[in-house]
Amino acid sequence: MSRLVIFGAAGRTGQVIVREALHAGHVVTAAVRDPEGFRAQFAEAAGERLSAVPADVRDPATVRAVLAGHDAVVSAIGPAGRSAHGLYSDAARSLVTAMTATGVRRLLTISSAGVRDDDPGFPLWYRAVAHTLLKELYGDMRRMETIIRDSPLDWTFVRPTRLTDTPSTGEYRVGEGVTPPHGRMIARADLARFIIRELEEGRWSRKAPTLAQ
Description:
Shape: globular
Helix content: 25-40%
Strand order of the largest sheet: 3-2-1-4-5-6-10-8
CATH superfamily: NAD(P)-binding Rossmann-like Domain
CATH class: Alpha Beta
Radius of gyration: 16 Å
CATH architecture: 3-Layer(aba) Sandwich
Distance between the termini: 28 Å
Number of strands: 10
Number of domains: 1
Structural class: alpha/beta
């Protein structure tokens, strides 16, 4: 059993990770902007192993206040639209500063298969989209990865392909820094299972596993 802090826990992916972590027996602190709203969503799971606290992932001081007494951090943050507005890179700076100060070293952060725009697993049309419509978003993700990679943290960049809300299949492929051939999507439930398993096993320390069905 580990004590985990999950940033972005109120989002579509974050909620699935919270449930998977609880199912696996871990103690979870959800770092969210609206703790009361989050508690209402997870009323059935509230108790000794789930708590919600206010935090702004762009603010190192509030991040640091959350981390004390925890073993690892999962970042499932993401913007509401196609523009990051510096969210990923700002969050990376805050997390590195706060985690270094508190001695919490293990960080799993959700990035995207799209950060590698020369990925041979992508069709040409998607590479074009990555260079145009999603250029700013992926650019900020790359800055995030660079900031964390240059830190002393024990990091893993989990890079999913397109996320879906379909049920878990338990069958997915993982490439090291590259999308598995013909991989296009993965269920959020399978992404969550991979993240919790990685927290327990540590097979992908300082690597960038890329997930697809």
